[in-house]
Amino acid sequence: MSAEEKQLIIEAWDRHVEKNVVSKKHGSFSSTAEEAFRETFKNGIMALEKLTQKEKVKLLKYAGL
C-alpha cells in the first residue's frame, strides 16, 4: 500500500476525531455509534490485503484501537 493510501486512512481517522469533538461540544455524541464506528474502522483496516501486518498494527495503534 502506498504512503498516500495510508495517509488517507490517517486523515479519515483525524476527521472522525474532529467530528467527535464537535459532537461532544454540542451534546450530540453517541457512545453506541462511536463504538460501532470504531469496530467498523478496525475491521476495515484488518480486511485490507494491501497492508502488511506491521502497517495494520501501526494504523490501529495510531487510532488507539
Report on the structure:
The protein has 3 helices and no strands. With 65 residues, the chain is an all-alpha fold.
Topology:
Elements: H1 3-25, H2 31-47, H3 53-63
Summarize the structure.
By secondary structure, the protein is an all-alpha fold. The chain is 78% helix and 0% strand.
Features:
mainly alpha, single chain, 65 residues
By DSSP (H or I, 4+ residues per run), the number of helices equals 3
Largest sheet: none
> Gyration radius, to the nearest Å?
13 Å
Give the terminus-to-terminus CA distance. 20 Å
Write down the secondary-structure element order.
Answer: HHH
Number of strands: 0
Specify the structural class: mainly alpha
Q: Strand-residue fraction?
A: under 5%
Q: Give the low-confidence spans.
A: none
Return the average pLDDT rounded to an integer.
Answer: 88
Could you estimate the helical fraction of the residues in percent? over 70%
- The global form is elongated
